[in-house]
Design goal:
It contains 9 helices and no strands. It is an all-alpha fold.
Length: 209
């Protein structure tokens, strides 16, 4: 994660918080733990944050900002929903793979947290769900209204399993599977598989470029 030239200590604290959460979980993390991981004093921590909950919220905000940057890079007016889905999912997974500790915060700790971290997670999830619901416009008749929420839950389960197992750095490899489970309720198995294969080919090309 790039450090801000104007607030380097704050950025180090966010990284320290994410690493502590990934190592021991937010519930068992102390300010001393974060300060040690970040290499800053408690005085510095308290100058930036009122406590651990505020720090967790700022950590989640940092990840949300990175997520929207990744999505804005692939979203454009008039672009087909399926292509935006494929590129957006791949971009988000690549971003999370570069920030494995932050991925743990988002997928695990923010789910049970209070305050700003929970609000940010729920807002981000709602925005993703709203995008997925546009898939109903492409679907055949009979696709239930709950298809989008079910698809998102399935994708989250795939990602969370990889994160909890300590392999968040490999999340980009999940792009084809995630694209498939998100697309299949709306596009059908054949088209969803073609879209997933496209994600696999594009990932291979990026890897060898």
């Amino acid at each position: 994660m790039a450090l801000s030239a104007s607030h380097p200590e704050r950025e180090w604290i966010l990284i320290g918080m994410a690493e502590c959460c990934a190592t021991r979980g937010f519930a068992r993390t102390t300010i001393e733990d974060v300060c040690s991981a970040a290499g800053v004093s408690r005085e510095t921590f308290e100058r930036e944050f009122s406590g651990l909950e505020e720090c967790l919220g700022a950590t989640m905000q940092s990840l949300v900002d990175a997520a929207w940057t990744a999505l804005e890079a692939v979203a454009s007016p008039g672009r087909p929903w399926s292509i935006t889905l494929r590129e957006g999912a791949a971009g988000l997974l690549a971003m999370l793979a570069e920030r494995p500790a932050f991925a743990y915060v988002a997928l695990v700790d923010a789910r049970t947290a209070d305050g700003r971290a929970a609000v940010l997670r729920n807002s981000a999830r709602s925005a993703l769900l709203e995008f997925l619901e546009h898939g109903h416009e492409l679907a055949e008749a009979g696709v239930p209204a709950s298809a989008a929420s079910g698809a998102l839950a399935a994708a989250e389960a795939l990602v969370e399993q990889r994160v909890v197992s300590g392999n968040a750095g490999e999340l980009a490899e999940l792009a084809p599977a995630v694209v498939y489970v998100l697309a299949v309720p709306f596009l059908g198995m054949g088209e969803a598989d073609r879209l997933a294969q496209g994600a696999r080919r594009r990932r291979h090309l990026r890897a060898v470029a």
